[in-house]
Amino acid sequence: MTKIYIPRDSAALSVGADQVADEFARLVRERGLDAQIVRTGSRGMLWLEPLVEVETANGRVGYSNVSSAVVTDLLDAGILEGAAHYSNIGIVDQHEWLTKQQRVTFARVGIIDPISLSDYEAHGGLVGLRKALSMSSEAIVDQVTESGLRGRGGAGFPAGIKWKTVLGAEAGQKYICCNADEGDSGTFADRMLMEGDPFTLIEGMAIAGIAVGATKGYIYIRSEYPHAIETMNQAIEVATAAGVLGDSVCGSTKAFTLEVRPGAGSYVCGEETAMLESLEGKRGMVRPKPPIPALVGLYGKPTVINNVMTLSAVPMVLADGAAAYQALGHEKSRGTQVFQLAGNIAQGGIVELAFGVTLGELVDGYGGGTRSGHPVKTVQIGGPLGAYMGTDAWDVAMAYESLAAAGGMLGHGGIVVFDDSVNMAKQARFAMEFCAEESCGKCTPCRIGSTRGVEVIDRIVAGVDQSKNLELLEDLCETMTDGSLCAMGGLTPLPVRSALKLFPADFGISGGKS
Amino acid sequence: MTTYSQDMLIGELSRLSEHKPGVMQALQRTQELLGYVPDTALDVVADVCNVSRAEVYGVLTFYSDFRRNAPADVIVKVCVAESCQSVGSRELVDDLHREGFDVHTGTVRDGIACEQTFCLGNCALSPAAMINGKPLGRATAASILAAAKAAK
């Protein structure tokens, strides 16, 4: 029987993958063909979606940008034999965009059926968890520490040190909380992993639980991700039925259960302490630190909070050993980063590479420049709280420290590309507007400063007392940076200041470049 | 709300307590059941969660997902964040406005409401929208409204 692989990733669905799958199903039935449709995640070559793949003796052959209208044509042309067609992109695994990448966390995404545990195991799944079950807690934490794995949510804190703190804390109950509140514009790696390979996250969380002595885990997924919520719930059900989760993890004496908790539409709940409040059902107000969540976390208990990408890297660290993961990377940034190419980009999607690739290689090399064909004016890296950078930063190595040295912030690894039509004063104003909209309200500089920021930028653009208002904006940015508890107010000045510094003419400041 | 549905709601929310629900989860369940959170439900949630009505109100108004009135038949979420801005979401929002849909206020017209949202995670295929939970990529005002009409 020939297998036809069609993504169920929501990006693929957004351009008609379900209609394509329905049409294939109808024609397979009608023509009595010996073929089976398998729904997968996406390979991350999102500009080619819907990307349909057919299993052949030489590998999986891809057909790009398939619409339901061409399915008849594809079957007539002999797609089941991997026949030639204008949409044929060849063997997908040999596609240059993929062969140049180092897929570790995303190794299975787009290849396997996301909710088939046997498919997962056939592709190396559960090896890390089984290994962890044969190790002491300390040994697991040591492996994670030695791997150099750092928090992928943005802060880059070493995962092993966080785990060690929770392991050392005395408590009757500990928790593992996965932050899947991926609210940064330009990021979608968490969503794609959860929709395309949810067992990897489940396995990573189970390992974390066994390592620190936590028996209960929560995945906080933003409500804007209904498909990820559904797939995670399905996968948890499958894993529980198979005994991977439950009172006896894979037949061991360790217990670990998981639950998905959806968010309710609040960006600030991606901040870890606000997320804890939200998990407890309260307003998502940021908590002061200390105490750190590793000691006083969910319901006041010691809690590991890690991002989806951090926890999903853990199975590979355990399976292949810390050294294999540590061998990849750049300076203090070890392992791979799942970069997300977004916005005005010709070839948008997932690029997983060892840290250290240059910004220019990502945007021009992988991304192929802008979708509009106009020159790139700026990119925003790391979401709405990240800096805007110009093409003069093309040689910057993409890693935590090197990017910070260049005035940027890696954040969750999303890169939003803008062409020369963008007005940077509008972008700076939006950064303040967004902060005003999403601030939890706890800190005055964030709650009120953001609204004042919008007004001050408006006055600068209108040419009212420009030098005085520029000084005021700088003062305001400083107050927000120094006087806010979390990154919401603390980092909003980053896009504002960088936009102003790089493109003053867009703000109507004479003599500046635009 | 009738007495019957009050009882129904109390029953449904009580069942949540096995999973240690907070006020937010009780409100989410209420909205799942009723489509929105009517004022009369606030007391029920307060009772079940053993908190004051004011606390429930605080949570209700913190999160943008909660509705206090019956929703339109079709809810369109339109992304207005940076990635979508880079490929014309500002113009798309203007186009929708010309058709009578203000994403900032979520005005309802012909049973359709268009509401702004910040990121749907479909940033490589921006502008992004979601129509009654179904994603739409590389969206235009025309493709959004066509999909919304088809969803009715």
How would you describe what is shown here?
- The complex is a heterodimer of chains A (514) and B (152).
- Chain A is α/β, with parallel strands linked by helices and 514 residues long.
- Chain A has 22 helices and 16 strands.
- In chain A, the strands form four sheets. In chain A, strands 2-1-3-4-5 form a five-stranded mixed sheet. In chain A, strands 13-12-16-14-15 form a five-stranded mixed sheet. A four-stranded parallel sheet of chain A has the order 8-7-6-9, sandwiched between helices.
- In chain A, helix 11 links the parallel strand 7 and strand 8.
- In chain A, helix 6 runs parallel beside helix 10, helix 7 crosses helix 10 and helix 9 packs across helix 10.
- The longest helix of chain A is centred in the C-terminal third of the chain and has 18 residues, at 466-483.
- The radius of gyration of chain A is 24 Å and the shape is globular.
- In chain B, helix 1 runs parallel beside helix 3 (39-49).
- The two termini of chain B are 26 Å apart.
- Chain B is built from seven helices and five strands; from the N terminus they run H-H-H-H-E-H-H-E-E-E-E-H.
- Chain B has two domains: 3-62; 74-151, Glutaredoxin (3-Layer(aba) Sandwich), CATH 3.40.30.10.
- Chain B is elongated and about 45 Å long.
- In chain B, 47% of the residues lie in helices and 13% in strands.
- Chain B is of the alpha+beta class.
- The mean pLDDT of chain B is 93.
- Chains A and B meet through helix 1, strand 8, strand 12, strand 16 and helix 17 of A and helix 2, helix 4, helix 5 and strand 5 of B.
